[in-house]
Amino acid sequence: MPQGEMKEQEVPDAHFTVDKQNISLWPRDLPSKPDLSPGLRKPLTARVAFICLSLVLVTSIVLQAVFYPWLLGKISDVKRDAQVLRGHVDNFSNLSSDLLSKSGRVQVAEVQIQMVNASLNRVQSQILSLGAIVERASAQIQGLTRNWEEVDHLNAQIPEVKRDLDKASALNAKVRGLQSSLENLSKLLKGQNDILRMVSQGWKYFKENFYYFSHTPKTWYSAEQFCISRKAHLTSVTSESEQEFLYKTTDGLPHWIGLTKAGSEGNWYWVDETPFNKQQSGRFWIPGEPNNVGNNEHCVNIRVSSLQSWNDASCDDKLLFICKQPYTHSDL
């Protein structure tokens, strides 16, 4: 193909953009034109392309001369802003991690707050219970206060009560004395009544003993049986006063007493088992007695009205006799 007849090609318009520090140039899409004849379209396209390329180059140079420093400043500012933004982003990341950490702490704190609330609820219920207990205690304290006032009132009355007790104690002592006197008097009256009852039955009373002086003569053994039937025995003699009472009451009439012995060689003894006092009894024998006439006088009687009035005689002789019954004090 000859050079003058170089095939014309469509040259696209140049288009450029500025991205921070980079400048890019690329063709811009042209609007579709109506189809020309191939002969006319090639030279026109070449010229247009050349013109556009020239304009682009001129514009690029102008822009580089005019706007490049400004663009560099802007790019520098953008870099600084990007660094600041990056710092903010880092700070935000740190803040986010702090927030996450604090969020965990907040959750823990929420759990603790829930536990504290539960504890507060328990404490509140306990406070209510304590309030009820305090009210009951207050009521009890009021009751105790009233009781204490009553106690103070009673304490004030204690001296008077003590005086009354002293008086009552003195009266009680007097009453006990009177009771003792009444008891003694009652015993005395009872004893007197017993004595009167025995006396009404023919017995005589002398120094805590009852004596029955018979009206019918009997042998010594029969007389003892009669006395036993009356819960008594033929009398024993244990003192001079009793001997005097007996011989004066018999008035000189012979009466059997309870002194006897077993055989001629036996010892004297009292039938009611009172111990025999040989030395004391020696003053009560009639002089010359006992003489055991015929070796058959084994029983004793009071024969005369005298201190020395005892006489031994045959137990088969029938004489009056004396029964003796000790007086027994009966309880009331």
TrEMBL record:
Gene3D superfamilies reported in the protein's UniProt record: 1.20.5.170, Mannose-Binding Protein A, subunit A (3.10.100.10)
Pfam assignment, any one: Lectin_C
In alphabetical order, the GO MF annotations are:
carbohydrate binding
User: Which parts pass through the membrane?
Assistant: 48-71
Entry membrane topology: Single-pass type II membrane protein
Which keywords does UniProt give here?
Coiled coil, Disulfide bond, Glycoprotein, Lectin, Membrane, Signal-anchor, Transmembrane, Transmembrane helix
According to its UniProt record, where is this protein located?
Membrane
Q: What is its main location?
A: membrane
Question: What CDD domains does the database record attribute to this sequence?
Answer: CLECT_DC-SIGN_like (cd03590)
Q: Name one GO cellular component term.
A: membrane
Could you provide one GO biological process annotation from this protein's UniProt record?
defense response to virus
Give the InterPro entries listed for this entry.
C-type_lectin-like (IPR001304), C-type_lectin-like/link_sf (IPR016186), C-type_lectin/snaclec_domain (IPR050111), C-type_lectin_CS (IPR018378), CD209-like_CTLD (IPR033989), CTDL_fold (IPR016187)
The C-type lectin domain extends over 206-324
Summarize subunit and interaction data from the UniProt record for this chain: Homotrimer.
Protein name (record): C-type lectin domain family 4 member K
Organism annotation: Nannospalax galili
